[in-house]
Amino acid sequence: xxxxxxxxxxxxxxxxxxxxxxxxxxxxxxxxxxxxxxxxxxxxxxxxxxxxxxxxxxxxxxxxxxxxxxxxxxxxxxxxxxxxxxxxxxxxxxxxxxxxxxxxxxxxxxxxxxxxxxxxxxxxxxxxxxxxxxxxxxxxxxxxxxxxxxxxxxxxxxxxxxxxxxxxxxxxxxxxxxxxxxxxxxxxxxxxxxxxxxxxxxxxxxxxxxxxxxxxxxxxxxxxxxxxxxxxxxxxxxxxxxxxxxxxxxxxxxxxxxxxxxxxxxxxxxxxxxxxxxxxxxxxxxxxxxxxxxxxxxxxxxxxxxxxxxxxxxxxxxxxxxxxxxxxxxxxxxxxxxxxxxxxxxxxxxx
Length: 351
Fold this sequence. Notes:
This protein is about 30% helix and about 10% strand. It has 10 helices and 6 strands, in the order E-E-H-H-H-E-H-E-H-E-H-E-H-H-H-H.
């Protein structure tokens, strides 16, 4: 029997067996199939290329870029009572006078405070520039930080250089130029009052100049002012050319001659009277228009207005010791040679 692959010779013939293989020749691939094969290879290659491209494209599209924002989230401060009663930590602001006076005129209708309030004295310095007496005032204020506030109104061109350890450091308010004898001087005083009123703990307001010095220690001053039911401002009906002689009939009917008052520029006022001055829109236009340089408006405006509105709240004298030379518009000044033991003894006797 013959197989298709090979056969083995019989052993019975006594011959050495041998293997015989038959090699069948392969048929050549028909030429007509070659174009189809090439087309198949091209299609497969294109399919593979497109699959790879789509895979990479979809992978890129699915990657979401993460960009870290530099904008910090806005954390809004809770609207608590502390937010409303906290005094301004920085006295410089962008409010104009109208905005400032409006803001400062807010008054609680309920007299009792719903928190523990320690009343303070606002010491307001109306100056032209430096405060040469500041080292002495620093000693006066030391140890009483919770009982006072300081405010400085100076020339806008003045750049203060108080040391950080001074009580005057960072206490300058937005200021404007003031002119002696003009309404701009009273504007500076109203500006001081308004800024001090923004601190709800300020209960008493004392106006001072760069030439003032304390004559008593802080505890005596605080006790004297806090126990008094009066505000200290001089307001006198003075006859003659330096008193009634400065009155202008055009100020009537808001101000009559019998209501015209004169007094020192320096004062101590309660919070109520400070608000009255800041919110005034009745007397201010009259004094601005009809109390011109020879009138010296700072000696008449507050004195007359408060005498008309609240005469029962005035002590009718000032806490500032001043010497007025006869027939001179400015108070006397004292130098190093004048200041001695007898000088202070005289002040104590006069006051």
